[in-house]
UniProtKB/TrEMBL annotation:
The chain holds residues 1 to 113 of 142 of the full protein. The active site is at residue 99. A motif (Histidine triad motif) lies at residues 97-101. This is HIT-like domain-containing protein. Residues 9-113 form the HIT domain. It comes from Rhodocollybia butyracea. GO terms for biological process: nucleotide metabolic process.
Amino acid sequence: MTHSDDKCIFCLIVKETIPSLKVYETEHSLAFLDINPVSDGHTLVIPKYHAVTITDLPDEYLADIGPVVKKIAIATGATAYNVLQNNGKLAFQHVDHVHFHVIPKTNDKDGLV
Ligand code: 5GP
Ligand code: ZN
């Protein structure tokens, strides 16, 4: 991992210091199940590079993550889903490492982050 922060929970997941349920990965991106899912299959897609917001993320990593988000959305099998990405505390970002939520919607009880 080229740019990492040992105090960041998602960097520790990339390094496998903290376990996660991995779904898919590329050289630059990792997809794993959210620990507190708001619907079945709620998945997080992150860059293997520590950046707090997408404006801090090098384009190379941003370019890699889009196709991974698409692949995960297809893999869930859901025809309805939300892709959410929060930047900054005011925008409800709680983990300070860029992440895209892929949230399948199969019934009207499925929530949002
Ligand atoms: P945010 O609110 O920052 O957009 O989303 C952070 C997400 O990370 C939340 O949905 C939360 O459940 C998830 N999360 C926080 N810590 C962990 C963890 O240690 N493992 C996993 N798999 N997900 C986590
Ligand atoms: Zn990080």
